[in-house]
Each structure stands twice: as structure tokens, then as C-alpha cells.
Amino acid sequence: LVSSMAKSYAIVNLSHGFIPTTRCIKGRFFEVPAVNSLLITEGAPHTEDFYEPDKEIVVFDGMDDAVDKIQFYLKNTKAGLEIAQAGYERTIREHSYRDRFTKLFSELGI
Fold first, then answer.
1. pTM here?
2. Closest to 61 (Cα-Cα) out of 33, 32, 40, 37
3. Cα(73)–Cα(48) distance, rounded to whole angstroms?
4. I want to staple 91 with a disulfide (CB 3.0 to 4.6 A). Which of 3, 15, 50, 95 is the partner?
5. How far apart are CA 99 and CA 85, in angstroms?
6. pLDDT recorded at residue 42
7. What is the 3-state secondary structure (H, E, C) of 17-65?
8. Could you tell me which residues come within 8 angstroms of residue 70 by beta carbon, excluding any fewer than 6 positions away?
9. In the 8-state DSSP scheme, what is residue 11?
10. What is the pLDDT of residues 29-50, one digit of tens each?
């Protein structure tokens, strides 16, 4: 799966949780930028705590917005590649498993 993601220019991610009306951040949210692909993702609470929307990832709100953004970035690959690179750099800098678990353990007081 990772090698397929790494070969892809862009990947669309839906943020539905176990309860259909909820949105959540899942592993794919970090995996796609980690392989330097463009993440086009449905918005979820706290998205902006991890990446800057439209600078490091692309966030959509609803299917009409998703279609518009997908079409835009398919026509404007240079802009998409710049966002993918910024997302990759942020991921390497702040979102490795080591970084995520260090923060989690710190918040838990471990």
C-alpha cells in the first residue's frame, strides 16, 4: 500500500469515523504526506493542529468542494506538488511515530 501511495500524485481521504456523522483524523492523514504525495482530505476536527490547510495538505468540505479541488489540482500539478512537498517536510519534521508517541506519552504524564 505504501509503495502505491508513493507512486501517486494525489490521494483523496475521507474522514468518516465509526459513527457516520463524525469526522476523525486517521493514519492515512499522516501516511500520504509522509510519501510526498498530495493529500486531499475531508475536514476533521483539529486538522489545522497538524497541517496548514491549502499549504501543506488540501482540505475539502463536502463532495462539491472535493470535486472542485480535485479538478483544480489535476490541472495545476505544480501547485499540488508544492503542497505535497510542504506536507512531506512537515511530516518528517513533526509527525514521525517517535514524535507522535513522545507527545502522547508526555500528555499522559508517562
1. 0.86
2. 40
3. 20
4. 95
5. 19
6. 93
7. CCCCCCECCCCHHHHHHHCCCEEEEECCCCHHHHCCECCCEEEECCHHH
8. 10, 12, 40
9. E
10. 999 999 999 999 999 999 999 9
Cα angle: 48, vertex 64, 51; to 5 degrees: 15
CA distance 109 to 18: 28
C-alpha to C-alpha distance for 32 and 15, rounded to whole angstroms: 14
- Joined together, the cell numbers standing for residue 38 give 498530495
Residues 85, 56: Cα–Cα separation, whole Å: 8
Give the burial class of 38: count Cβ atoms within 10 A of its Cβ; 0-12 exposed, 13-18 middle, 19 or more buried.
Answer: buried
Quote the cell numbers at residue 90: 512537515
What's the length of the chain? Answer: 110
